[in-house]
Amino acid sequence: MNDPSAAIRLTRLPSGLTVVTERMERVETVSFGAYVAAGTRHEREAENGVSHFLEHMAFKGTERRSAVAIAEEIEAVGGQMNAYTAREQTAYYVKVLKEDTALAADIIGDILTHSTFDPEELERERGVILQEIGQANDTPDDIIFDHFQETAYPGQPMGRPTLGREDIIRGMKREALTGYMRRHYTTANTVVAAAGNLDHDRVVDLVAGHFADLPAEPAPAAEPGRYAGGEFREDRDLDQVHIVLGFPSVAYGDADFYPTMLLSTVLGGGMSSRLFQEVREKRGLVYSIYAFTAPALDGGLYGISAGTGESEAAELMPVTLDELLKVQRDVTEAELARARAQVKAGLLMSLESTGSRCEQIARQLQVFGRIVPTAETVAKINAVTVADVQRAAARQFRATPTLAALGPAGRVPALPAIAERLAA
Predict the structure, then answer these.
(1) 93 has pLDDT over 60
(2) Which residue, among 135, 310, 148, has the nearest Cα to 239 in the 3D structure?
(3) What's the mean per-residue pLDDT of the chain?
(4) What's the count of helices (H) and strands (E) in the chain, helices before strands?
(5) pLDDT value at position 4?
(6) Is 331 helix (H, G, I), strand (E, B) or coil?
(7) CB of 125 within 8 A of CB of 60?
(8) How far apart are the first and last CA of the chain?
(9) CA 390, CA 413: separation in Å to the nearest integer?
(10) Quick one: what percent of the chain has pLDDT higher than 70?
(11) Considering only 86-90, 257-261, 309-313, which range has the smallest mean pLDDT?
């Protein structure tokens, strides 16, 4: 991994911080990011939303830079800067021209180690987040996923909303942000990654300097997810009822990870998928329907999302359930070949982006503890058989389901009826 001629190289600093890079000689840019293995599932109940709040505050000023200065310095060189919060990770990243790599490392290191959390900026950003929560609550095809997650994992970190709850955000103190950052933003819990036209040794030197003040301590472990399943239903005066039907699914390292990914594509991953063809094209019951997988370190969720009119809701669910039953016993080689092609094309196309490569190598280290060669991933996708996909379908669709329905939901079948039909 430290062969100077290798495209991907990894160095662990004496502090415990991991630095990984991928050299892409034919591009003129570098993507640089810090990926912290902490997100919503690492929050205590009374601090729900702190990961996301912290992400917002990171760009709001450091000991050396104001919020305006951070934005101006990046945009003065034509760079792009962003961040995101997920259930298991928070990321801070920039994309710059190759000659501005030092600035990228300086700014990301600065915001992770010297943010000031100015009280005025904190109050201003609190208002922004409350607006974001309000917007999500007013967007049914967005908020339905929070209800789905909470129903699948009730009363535990894996089920809480990433944005946080309005009452908690309103009362969150500065000390909650600084305390969470001190516990979780550590060298053992962070991977600094870069991809593009770069020199690994130079990046390592930059990281060693700009991240020197990152605490070198172990971070608290996340609470294990305990899938329960159940039903959420809320009647709202909407034109459509928004539905998510889901099941417990597989973790990243599970033997059925790739069969489940291909199952998702066969069932609801494109215009040729079974659900799209049967539910939309043949019956005209929806505008949008798709299947998705949401893997985690210790489990995951598999879901089908759709929106439909009140009069179509009664027909939509039985048709969907029939497809879940059929795919357990009948998958064709042609369907599997299309699914393989879609998944491999998505993977290989992502390799052309420095941002995607930067995120991918960091995430692989945090999930698998190593960089997974692309050829290995492609081989595992190619090795999936029809029997593997059918087995993955049976494993998931015979488990306790989770149903979330929002809108004119009276004609959506109840969960016991859904479970009974799937057990047939």
Answers:
(1) yes
(2) 310
(3) 96
(4) 16, 11
(5) 67
(6) coil
(7) yes
(8) 51
(9) 25
(10) 99
(11) 309-313
CB 362 within 8 A of CB 85: no
What one-character DSSP code corresponds to residue 61? B
Q: Is residue 129 within 8 Å of residue 202, measured between CB atoms?
A: no
Does residue 176 contact residue 47 with C-beta atoms inside 8 Å?
Answer: yes
Phi, psi of 209 (to 5 degrees): -80, -50
Tell me the two tokens of residue 18.
Answer: 């991991």
What residues are paired with 115 via a beta bridge?
62
Task: Let me know: does 368 contact 360? Beta carbons within 8 Å.
Answer: no
Q: How far is CA 420 from CA 241, 263, 322, 397, 404, in A?
A: 22, 22, 12, 11, 17
Residue type at 57?
M
The DSSP code for 194 is: E
Contact 62, 220 (CB under 8 A): no
Please identify every residue annotated as catalytic: 55
How far is the C-alpha of 23 from the C-alpha of 294, rounded, in Å?
30
Amino acid letter for position 10: L
Average pLDDT over residues 103-124: 97
Specify the residue for token string 């357990």. Answer: 328
Q: Retrieve residue 269's tokens.
A: 């991953």
What's phi and psi for 79, nearest 5 deg?
-80, 170
Distance in angstroms (rounded) separating the CA atoms of residues 27 and 44: 42
Strand partners, 231: 403
Tokens of 274: 């079974």
Given a cut of 60, is residue 387 above it in pLDDT?
A: yes
Phi, psi of 89 (to 5 degrees): -160, 145
Q: How far apart are CA 295 and CA 128, in angstroms?
A: 30
d(CA 255, CA 158): 22
Dihedral sign computed on CA atoms, order 305, 306, 307, 312: negative
